[in-house]
Amino acid sequence: MTQETVSEKPPLDRDSLRDVIDLSLWAGQMLLQHGADTDRVEHTVHLIGTSLGAEWLDILVSPNALVVTTISGDEFRTKVRRVVTLGVNLAVVCAINDLSYRISWGQVDRAAARVELVSISNLRHNYNRWVVILMVGLACAALSRLFGGDWAVFLVTLVASGSAMFVRQEMVRRHFNPFIIVVVTAFVAGAVASSASIFRLSPQPQIALAAAVLLLVPGVHLINSFQDMIRGHMVTGLVRGFTGAVISMCIALGLLLAMQLLNVGGL
Amino acid sequence: MNLLVILQDLLWSGIAAIGFAVLFNVPPKTLIPCFICGASGHAFRTILMELGMSITVGTLAGASMVGLLGAYFARRYETPSLVFAICGAIPMVPGAFAFRAMLGVIRISQATPAAGEPILMEAAINFINTGLILAAIALGIAMPTLLFRRRKPVV
Question: What is the pLDDT of residues B45-72, one digit of tens each?
Fold first, then answer.
């Protein structure tokens, strides 16, 4: 971006600049909260801010906060926004991505962008909770087949991870600590999956144990961690990686607890 | 290697990909491309591993395929490529390696030094595999951007 293109923009007054920083920061916060990698957050915030009239934005993405400075003419404003939870909701990422392009094409002004951001933050889930339970169960059961399990293992894994997903949804709704949720969910998955071993349903019952907890694996955190690091965002990459490691530790704890209580071994 | 094995691999890894896609709340129109990404990436890895490549190299190739397919679908469905890349890579994520490594770490705490040695080694091997496979996934799904959309950093 060159100096000539920048200076073509009319300078914004302080109130408009506040609006611009508010909107772009809000979009960035939702991206970071719902599973976007750092590069995408930076580019989207920059695109929205410059398209809404700011000349330049300086963005600092930290694992639990966003700092943005907007610059226009001689004015500049800075704002910090905390980002609390790191979850995954790709519908929100898609909606913000779409909005950022429409803003950059000039189809959406500041007032309309605010209305759209409100509706994105109230976006409903695309799938009914029972559909999610069934699909997550099927996904883990499918992975058990990839690990070489037979049909008995498939069924046990389906039931185990489905019931674990149910417990997880109930605990998320009651706002338990995320790491406690992982331990308890892994315990439930491990306990149900142990039935393959206890009732000798299959020659390789340990596959059911290994596959049933896979719904908890922090795949997005781990992938984003390395995505951030290869693009030079070391701090966010390290924190995401460490979060992923702690979650894996919680999975192991819950699983071990179930295996020791039910006296099942072999993993 | 027979065709049936590959077809089964395609089917199960595709189902795993859309299962997690539903968990991640992707737009419903992207479920079929997510299936294709997940299935082809994992099956490609399986074929390469059958041919004697290591799991890391296989994952790099499989994830590159997911990345390229994702870049194509992103244009076709007007959806960020991240959706296809993440959901397509999920069947390859070393989840079992990750928690086996942690299981080993917990078990070391109860072992004597002599008995702990093999457990420690196993945990270390699992841990290193987790890291290498994840790096291969990240590099692979970023491949289209790293190769074709190099841009000056904006911030």
Answer: 999 999 999 999 999 999 999 999 999 9
User: B108 in a domain, yes or no?
Assistant: yes
Q: Which residues contact B67 (CB under 8 A, 6 or more apart)?
A: B81, B85, B140, B141, B142, B143, B144
Q: Report residue A61: phi and psi, to 5°.
A: -100, 115
- The residues, ordered by sequence, that sit 6+ positions from A151 with a Cβ below 8 Å of its Cβ are none
Domain assignment present for residue B155? The answer is no
Q: What pLDDT, on the 0 to 100 scale, is given for residue A1?
A: 45
Q: How many domains does chain B have?
A: 1
Question: pLDDT of A2-60, one tens digit each?
Answer: 444 445 678 888 888 889 999 999 999 999 999 899 999 999 999 999 999 888 899 99
Residues of A in contact with B98 (CB under 8 A): 217, 222, 244-245, 248, 251
- Residue B136 in any domain: the answer is yes
Domain that holds residue B59: 3-148
What's the whole-model pTM score?
A: 0.89
- Would you say residue B153 lies in a domain? no
Measured CA to CA, the distance from residue A142 to residue A129 in angstroms comes to 20
Q: State the nearest Cα–Cα gap between B78 and chain A, in angstroms.
A: 8
> How many Å lie between the alpha carbon of B132 and the closest alpha carbon of chain A?
10
Residues 25-54 of B with CB under 8 A from A: 25-28, 42
Q: What is the pLDDT of residue A3?
A: 46
| ipTM for this model | 0.89
